[in-house]
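Hi R.,

Here's the chain you asked about this morning:
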Amino acid sequence: MQFSSLSEFISMGGYGFYVWLSFGSATLILSLLLIASKKRFKQVLAAIAKQQVREEKLIQARLSRVQQNTDSANSRVKVDNL
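And the predicted structure, written out as C-alpha cells:
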C-alpha cells in the first residue's frame, strides 16, 4: 500500500487509530516485559550470590568444627599416652 502523504500514512485509510493503538500497546507491553525481566534477573543473581556466601560460611564452620574435634582428639590421645 502506498501513501501520498504522511497524514494519509498516519490515518491508514480511517483505521489509523486502531493500528497505532495496537502498535503502541504492543510496544508498551514488550517494554514492560523487558524491564521486569531485567529486574528479576538482577534479583536472581543477588539471591544466588547470597546463597553462595551462606554456603561458604557453612563449609567454613564445618571445617573449623572438624578441626576443633581433631585437635581435641589429638590432645586426648597425647594425654592418654603419657
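The chain is about 90% helix and 0% strand.

Let me know if you need anything else.
M.
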